[in-house]
Amino acid sequence: MEKASVSVKIYNSTYALTTSASEEQVLKIAAEVDRRMQELAESKKLLQTDKIAIWTALDLAADRLELQEKCAAMEQELQQKCAAAEQKMQEKYAALEQEMQQRNAVLAEELQSLQARYDRLLAAVRER
């Protein structure tokens, strides 16, 4: 993918970033980092940009970890639901297969009965 230069302003400094991401995406990310840095500087009463940047990085990393953990939990839950659904389908399939075998057995008995009746009728016709 082709790389392009995007100029962003984060915490009163301008940066020229070379990236393959879209300009819109880069600007959104930069705006989020700037917003967080501004909030942290104000809430923690920090003046040094490097400390604000480190706090922001820690917060973003914590958010990412939390999302990863949530995704892992959701994936596990989904796998469990899929396994339960698969088990249920297998049980339904087994029940249907058993029902089909029972119906086949009944039909086989009916066929034998009809064959016996046919044989008797055929023998009666031959005797006449």
First-residue to last-residue Cα separation = 93 Å
Report strand %: 5-15%
Helices, by number, come to 2
**Number of β-strand runs:** 2
Summarize model confidence as the mean pLDDT.
96
SSE sequence, one letter per element? EEHH
- Biggest beta-sheet profile: 2 strands, antiparallel
- Uncertain parts: none
Q: Looking across the biggest beta sheet, what order are the strands in?
A: 1-2
* Helical residues, percent: over 70%
Shape by Cα distribution: rod-shaped
- Radius of gyration (CA) equals 37 Å
Structural class: mainly alpha
Please describe what this structure looks like.
The chain is 78% helix and 11% strand. It has helices at 23-43, 49-127; strands at 4-10, 13-19. β1 (4-10) and β2 form a beta hairpin. The model has no long low-confidence stretch (mean pLDDT 96).
List the helices and strands and how they pair.
Blueprint: E1 4-10, E2 13-19, H1 23-43, H2 49-127
Antiparallel strand pairs: 1-2
Helix pairs in contact: 1-2
